Amino acid sequence: MSARPRVWVTQPVFGDVLARLDPYFDVRVEPTVAPRGAGELREGLRDVDGALVFIPDRIDAAAIAQASRLRAIANVGVGYNNLDIAALTAAGVLATNTPDVLTETTADFAWALLLATARRVTEAERWLREGQWTTWSFELMLGRDIHASTLGILGMGRIGRAIARRARGFGMRVLYHNRSRLPPEVERECAATFVARNELFAHSDHLVLVLPYSPQTHHAVGAAELGRMKPGATLVNIARGGIVDDAALADALAAGRIAAAGLDVYENEPAVHPRLLALRNVVLTPHIASASEATRRAMVALAVDNLVAALGAGPHAGRPPNPINADALLAR
Ligand code: 8YV
């Protein structure tokens, strides 16, 4: 039996980056990108010291309870609602994530979705490809202006601030709401004004959701919030499914209660609510906000660095750059 720690990687990503695990560990990389069900995750974690996992991998208390050797989980993603952090901490398993490296790419994508949604880009393209463009008409595909409008940002962390900074070029007024108000110098740097939650819904022409998912933010945007929005408003969600009540959103879009939505994340992804799929005033993308080649590589590289250090190897042994639950070490 090998004395080297064992590591499991749940998806075959960027082999040259994952190869940086090889000097330290016996590495098993899953050969396919198939979804890993609860049973498979339990089995996979059972006899390893560490794992590099992705957003769809739900690491629950049952899997953690059976993973007696497990000491570290490196999540490839900044959001980590797929991990049961309380159970990991109690079991002495250090969890890490990948903040910062994806901030700017994700902010770029929020803008891609916002522009596509407000200006009906994908709807217009679909219509053209269907061969429906037989006559140019003056009132064809009228959209909503971005420039000089009011941008609302719910959740003003790193990504929210990067989105706000980009709004300057469009001459927008930026409002935000966050659990805690930002220091004045940061507000100035983002040219963003703090408002109460209800005000944010009421005054935004375009509202972007960038808050983390937790039981407290489940359905943070439901029928009541959608009812507070301007009739011509657009909603963009690049945060997490479950923050928006997808059925309530489908109702609001179908009724013309708000104008349009751009969604990158869904309550039951990869399944998309059938009523959202049927609507034309919604732009749908498959959870790709951080998916530029450079950023996805950087995310895996950072997760590798975290895993190596969390398992006590490499130049930063014992000091992973992005611990989520440093107190896990106390439980060992
Ligand atoms: C990725 C994300 O799609 O970082 C997150 O929280 O949702 C995205 O960057 C995800 O990390 C892929 O595993």
Automatic annotation (TrEMBL):
<dbReference type="InterPro" id="IPR006139">
    <property type="entry name" value="D-isomer_2_OHA_DH_cat_dom"/>
</dbReference>
<protein>
    <submittedName>
        <fullName>Gluconate 2-dehydrogenase</fullName>
        <ecNumber>1.1.1.215</ecNumber>
    </submittedName>
</protein>
<feature type="domain" description="D-isomer specific 2-hydroxyacid dehydrogenase NAD-binding">
    <location>
        <begin position="112"/>
        <end position="289"/>
    </location>
</feature>
<dbReference type="Pfam" id="PF02826">
    <property type="entry name" value="2-Hacid_dh_C"/>
</dbReference>
<feature type="domain" description="D-isomer specific 2-hydroxyacid dehydrogenase catalytic">
    <location>
        <begin position="24"/>
        <end position="316"/>
    </location>
</feature>
<dbReference type="GO" id="GO:0051287">
    <property type="term" value="F:NAD binding"/>
</dbReference>
<dbReference type="GO" id="GO:0005829">
    <property type="term" value="C:cytosol"/>
</dbReference>
<dbReference type="InterPro" id="IPR006140">
    <property type="entry name" value="D-isomer_DH_NAD-bd"/>
</dbReference>
<dbReference type="Pfam" id="PF00389">
    <property type="entry name" value="2-Hacid_dh"/>
</dbReference>
<keyword id="KW-0560">Oxidoreductase</keyword>
<comment type="similarity">
    <text>Belongs to the D-isomer specific 2-hydroxyacid dehydrogenase family.</text>
</comment>
<dbReference type="InterPro" id="IPR036291">
    <property type="entry name" value="NAD(P)-bd_dom_sf"/>
</dbReference>
<dbReference type="InterPro" id="IPR029752">
    <property type="entry name" value="D-isomer_DH_CS1"/>
</dbReference>
<dbReference type="GO" id="GO:0016618">
    <property type="term" value="F:hydroxypyruvate reductase [NAD(P)H] activity"/>
</dbReference>
<dbReference type="InterPro" id="IPR050223">
    <property type="entry name" value="D-isomer_2-hydroxyacid_DH"/>
</dbReference>
<dbReference type="GO" id="GO:0008873">
    <property type="term" value="F:gluconate 2-dehydrogenase activity"/>
</dbReference>
<keyword id="KW-0520">NAD</keyword>
<dbReference type="GO" id="GO:0030267">
    <property type="term" value="F:glyoxylate reductase (NADPH) activity"/>
</dbReference>
